[in-house]
Design a protein that fits this description.
Layout: H1 2-54, E1 58-61, H2 63-73, H3 75-80, H4 82-95, E2 101-113, H5 117-122, E3 134-148, E4 154-166, E5 174-186, H6 193-196, H7 198-262, H8 267-302, E6 305-306, E7 309-310, E8 314-317, H9 330-340, H10 342-364, E9 368-381, H11 384-392, E10 396-406, H12 412-480, H13 485-520, H14 523-526, H15 542-545
Parallel strand pairs: 1-8
Antiparallel strand pairs: 2-3, 3-4, 4-5, 5-9, 6-7, 9-10
Helix pairs in contact: 1-8, 2-7, 4-7, 7-8, 7-10, 7-13, 9-12, 10-12, 12-13
Length: 553
Amino acid sequence: MRYLVCVAFLFSLIPAWTAAAQESTEAGVDNIFLHLQIELLDLEKLGEEVLDRLVGETLRLTLDESVLLALDGNQDILISGYEPLMSQGDLQGSRGEFDPTLTGRFSLRDASTPPSPTQFLFTPPGFLVPDENIEQRDTLYDLTLGGKLLWGTQYELAIVGDRSTGTFSLGNAVYGGDVTLTLTQPILRGFGADSNRVRIRTARNSVDISATQLETTVLTSIGDVIMAYWDLVGTIEQLKVREESFANAMRLVDINQQRFEIGTAAAIEVLQAKAGAASRQSDLITARTNILDSEDVLKDLMGLYDGDLLSFKSIEPTERPNPVKVDADFTTSINIALENRPEIRAAKLQVANARLELGNTRDGLLPQVDLTGSYGINDRTLDFDRTVRGVVDSNGDAWSIGIIGSIPIGNRAARGEHKRAKFFVRQQEQRLKQTQQMVMLSVRMAVRSIYSSYTLIESNKITRTLQEANVAAEEKRLQLGVTTSQDVLDIQEDLTEAQTQEIQSMVDYEKALIELQVSEGVLLRNRGIIYEPHDDDDPLGFFRSIGPIRSTP
């Protein structure tokens, strides 16, 4: 019986404890409410201060203006622009193989040698004096012009002259002159224009390869700029969504504040609304930071720098997504890409170069057999003028003809190079096939992305409309007291998510259209872009090249 009395007494205390706990909770709620109100004000002020420090002068840009800035300032484009210029230098150097070479020589020779017994025996009396040396002083000069012709013919035109004085000339100067033309024609290895133009044809293909590589860089870089532009537009539109979300949360705070003041809502309702507003205010600050990050990405792609530092200008894009349904077909887009993608043209040129090298190594397997011949006219007199006239009149002449042949025993070096070149051709053909497959894959993904993005636009538009109606209905229910602040916050968050997804789907659709044009290789043509690298170098002429010039960067 005593136990039952104690239990009854404890149950009688429960209402008193509940009332005390409620009074304590309400007092704590009031303190938390005041605290959250202060935090909201401080957070907004902090966001404004951060934005003021990081944002500079506003630069309004259209999409075309952004592309033009990138063509002049994008580092990838500028760096790749030097490749065709360097390849043109290689082409010029390969043609130098057929440049003639002019060689000159001048020398003096003074010799004093004892006479031999044979010279004493066969020399007429009076020419040699016993115990005296034979003196000989020569002046030699020659001028040679030599080089190679397109068919592999090597030529050399030599003009040789000399002046001699000494013991046997009896104090008189003896002049000699000689003009000789020598030709050497390969008849197996190195014969023909095809064999001798391999370097030139390879270099010309390399110029085209570097041009296609530049086109690829411009194509992808401009595509990146356009997509970065739309990303920036997306982050700006997302900021508007976050601002609307914050405004919705603050409207909920006002509604609950009014309900609390008239006694139709508990303090916890106000606290929940305040907490939701604080969270969305943080999202608002994050959205502003995302805009700055997107601006930096776009500024870097456009090369928008102030000196060595990334510009602090604030970019304001003037264009907005305007989704227009585009019908794309896998087969048509793939055929366009196979015809226009510069990577495929570059791969085909690489195959052509590999085949040229294979032909060159096949020529190297042949024996070296050269037909050589020369013809010269000469004269030797005591008068320089008479010597020149004698050479012109062909007072003396000489000719020769011959054949020279050689072959390495085993010829392993040439056979090894030929084997390597043969497999190199197969490798480049396989790379061409790989490039074509990669292009077709990128086109399929781009076409699929267009359809999925456009479908998501329509789907997200319907979702956003329904969520807007849902938010309005839920706020009405809150005013009637049949729902809670947390439910309203959740539905508002669903609306924010729907708006975010709708904007992102529109941005993704614009980017998908660009990605398809990049995959098809027609983006530059569609935008009317013809990029030529800046060649502002002062051409180096022949006479300047052989002078004492300094190399300048």
